[in-house]
Amino acid sequence: MIGGYLSCEEERIKIKIKTRSRKKEGEEGRFSVTPNVNGEYLEAFRTKSYVEICKKAHGELGNASTSFTMHLTEYLLEPGQEIVANMKVHGLLVEYFEASLEACRSCDTILQAIHQTRLAYARVTNTIKLSQTAPYNQSQNPIYTQLSSFVLQNNPLSIISPAEFRDIHDRYMVLLRTLISKRGKTQRTLTIKRFCNKVGGIGLIVSQSALLVALLVFAFHSVIGLVAVPCIASMFGLVMRKRFNTNSCMRLCEQLDVAAKGVYVLINELDTMSRMVKRLDDEVEHWREVADICVKNYKCEILNWVVKEFQDNESTFLDMLEELEDHIYLCFLTVNRSRRLVMQEITGKQR
To answer: What residue spans define the domains of the chain?
Structure first.
C-alpha cells in the first residue's frame, strides 16, 4: 500500500519535472536570439563602459549587507537625476528622463530579487551537500528544514509582476508616440518657417532695396536722407536676423528625435527583461512546488529524487540568473548612453 502510494508520488514529481523540461526547451527555442544579436551582446560585453558598470555594481554589492538595501540607481545612473532636475527643458524631455530613471529603478529591484533568489537557492543546495552523508531522519534532517523554508518564503522574482511590466510598456509606448508626434509637428513648423523665409525674403529684399534706393536719391536733396539711410539699413539687418531665427525649432526637433530613439530602445530592453524574469519566476515556482511535495510527504525516496533534481539543475538555474543579471547591466549601459546623448543635444547646442 505504502509502496504504491510512494510510486504514485514519485511519478507525480517525475511528470512535473519532465513537463517542465519540455516547456523550458520550447521557451528557449522561442526566445533564442539570432547570431547577429548574440554578436551585439558579445560586443557590448567587451566595452569599457560595460566593464565599468559591472565593477561599480559588484563593488557596491560586496559592501552591501545581506539585506541588500543598497540601491544602485543613484550610483550607476548617468547623468544624475539631480542634474536634470535643475535644467529648463521641454516637458517631454523631462518625461523621458523620468521614464529612464524609472526603468533603472526597475532594474535595481530585479537585481535585488536575483541576489535574494541566489542566496535562497544556495542555502538549499549547500544544505544538501552537507547532509548527504547524514542518516535519514524525517524530524531532524536539515534538508527538510531548508526545503520548507524555500517553500514558505515569497518568490523574490515576483516583485514585479507581468501586469506591472505591461503597464510600464504601455506608458512608454504612449510617451514614444507623443515624442514622435511632437517631433513631427515641430518639423512641419520648421519647414513652414523655412518656406516663409525663402518666399518672404525675396519680397523683403526687393522692397528694402527699393526703399534704400529711394532714400539714397532723396539723400542728394536732403540732410534727413543722410540720417535715415543708416537707420533703415540697421533695421533691415535686424529683420533679416530675426527672419532666419529657426535654431530653436531645430534644436527641439533634434532633442525630441534622440529622446524618442532612447524610449524605443528602452521599451525593447524592458520587454526582453520581462520575458527573462517571467521564465525565471516560473522556474522558481516549479521548484517550490516540487519541494512542497517532498516536505508534505516525508518519504526518503521522494527526498532523494528531489535532491538529485536540485543538484542536476543547479548549474542551469544559476546560469539563467547570471544571464538576467548581465542583461540588466546592459540595460543600465543603454539607459546611460541614451541619457548622455539627449543631454549632449541640450547642453551642446546651448553653448
So the answer is: 45-348
